[in-house]
C-alpha cells in the first residue's frame, strides 16, 4: 500500500474477527520475480531455492519476535502435497530454528488448494485445521506462512491459537 491506512481487507477482518492479526510481509507478491520464485520453489519443488530468503526471513523473525518470547507455528501442508513436493516450503526458511507443527489439515487428500480458489471461495472456506499440541496458555504465537493473499488461512490458525489460550497472535509471511 502507498498510504499508511488500513486496506479494505483489514477493515473487514477487524469487523468480523474483533481485531487484526497484524501480519508482516517482507515482500510484495505482485512482481514477476517473486511470482517466478514461488512457482519454482513451492510448485515445482526446487528445494535449494529456500536458501534465497532463509537468512533474511530468520533475521527478521529474530529481530522482531525474540524466540524466547514467541512460539513459531508453521502453517501446514496436506499429506498429498507433502507426498508430491516432499517438503513444507515454510519449514525450509525456518531450518535451524525451533518451530511447531501442531496444526494439521482436516482434509488430508483431495483438497482444493488455496492457489486454485477464487478470492470469494477462499473467504467462504471452512476451518481447515485441527490442533494436535499442548495448550499454549498465555504464550505469544507467531504464525509463519509463505503468502498472505486474503488472510483467511492465517485467521483460521489465529482462531485455534486463541482457543488454546494464546496471549498474542501475530503472523509473518514472505510476501503479500
The whole-number mean of residue pLDDT values reads: 92
Residue share in helix = 25-40%
Could you say which overall geometry the principal axes of the C-alpha atoms support?
globular
Q: Strand tally, please?
A: 6
How many DSSP helices? 7
The radius of gyration over CA amounts to 16 Å
**Regions with little confidence, pLDDT below 50 for 5+ residues:** none
Biggest pleated sheet = 4 strands, parallel
H/E topology pattern: HEHHEHHEHEEHE
Strand order of the largest sheet: 1-6-5-2
Structural category is alpha/beta
**Strand content bin:** 15-25%
Distance N to C terminus? 10 Å
Report on this model:
With 176 residues, the chain is of the alpha/beta class. It is 38% helix and 18% strand. It has helices at 8-17, 32-43, 51-64, 79-85, 89-94, 119-124, 152-163, and strands at residues 23-27, 70-74, 103-105, 129-131, 140-147, 168-175. Strands 1-6-5-2 form a 4-stranded parallel sheet. Strands 3-4 form a two-stranded antiparallel ribbon. Strand 5, helix 7 (152-163) and strand 6 (168-175) form a beta-alpha-beta unit.
Give a quick rundown of the structure:
This protein has helices at residues 8-17, 32-43, 51-64, 79-85, 89-94, 119-124, 152-163, and strands at 23-27, 70-74, 103-105, 129-131, 140-147, 168-175.
Amino acid at each position: 500500500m502507498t498510504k499508511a491506512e488500513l486496506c479494505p481487507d483489514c477493515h473487514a477482518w477487524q469487523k468480523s474477527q474483533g481485531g487484526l492479526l497484524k501480519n508482516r510481509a517482507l515482500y510484495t507478491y505482485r512482481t514477476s520475480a517473486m511470482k517466478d520464485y514461488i512457482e519454482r520453489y513451492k510448485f515445482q519443488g526446487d528445494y535449494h531455492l529456500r536458501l534465497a530468503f532463509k537468512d533474511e526471513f530468520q533475521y527478521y523473525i529474530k529481530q522482531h519476535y525474540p524466540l524466547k518470547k514467541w512460539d513459531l507455528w508453521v502453517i501446514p501442508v496436506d499429506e498429498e502435497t507433502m507426498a508430491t513436493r516432499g517438503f513444507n516450503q515454510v519449514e525450509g526458511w525456518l531450518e535451524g530454528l525451533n518451530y511447531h507443527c501442531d496444526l494439521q489439515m482436516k482434509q488430508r487428500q483431495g483438497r482444493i488448494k488455496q492457489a486454485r480458489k477464487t478470492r470469494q471461495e477462499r473467504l467462504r472456506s471452512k476451518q481447515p485445521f485441527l490442533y494436535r499440541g499442548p495448550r499454549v496458555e498465555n504464550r505469544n504465537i507467531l504464525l509463519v506462512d509463505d503468502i498472505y493473499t486474503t488472510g483467511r488461512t492465517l485467521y483460521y490458525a489465529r482462531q485455534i491459537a486463541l482457543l488454546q489460550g494464546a496471549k498474542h497472535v501475530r503472523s509473518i509471511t514472505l510476501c503479500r
